[in-house]
Automatic annotation (TrEMBL):
The keyword Transcription does not apply. It catalyses: (2E)-geranyl phosphate + H2O = (2E)-geraniol + phosphate; presqualene diphosphate + H2O = presqualene phosphate + phosphate + H(+); 1,2-dihexadecanoyl-sn-glycero-3-phosphate + H2O = 1,2-dihexadecanoyl-sn-glycerol + phosphate; (2E)-geranyl diphosphate + H2O = (2E)-geranyl phosphate + phosphate + H(+). This is Polyisoprenoid diphosphate/phosphate phosphohydrolase PLPP6. GO terms for biological process: lipid metabolic process. It is a multi-pass membrane protein. The gene is Plpp6. It comes from Eudromia elegans (Elegant crested-tinamou).
Amino acid sequence: LSALLAADLWASRRLGVCAAEGSPCAAARPLLKLVEVSGHGLPWLLGTAYGLCRSGSAAAREVLLNLLFALLLDLVLVAVVKGLVRRPRPTHNKMDMFVTLSVDKYSFPSGHATRAALVCRFVLHHLVLAVPLRVLVVLWALVVSISRVMLGRHNVTDVLFGLLLGYALYSVVEYCWLSPLSAPALFALW
């Protein structure tokens, strides 16, 4: 186990090529920070809540309400796991992250990777998209996840576990799908 941890730390440090201004690929840092924002929970929560409030279709409201439920479940689950594990962020991480809260000082698991996998599966399952757009959604999830290691925010295992957790979390959301029949009070609000 200690050999795996050492390999994880070594690989994470080697792949953190945009972790600081003096890093080998520092020129890509602003772009990766933009990718970081695209996978952050706050824009997703606010955008989903806004879409839910502005939606005129019952079907769209159902999908958006379940996406909001998924995002909230993701935030709570990641916060609980981070609070239990308390793995510190990599030492080469520059703490200039977009909007952080108490448990965000911990590294395991990557909330961005969890959210990216969850949103990717959700979008691919609930939106009718042409193949090029479906490929872009998957690429976005992968780029968000890879950016976490490149920026030095997370170790490789944090991201891999986050991807697995997000993938599994989508199955929970599907199992607990909220509909006008199963949660009439929620749908009465809109």
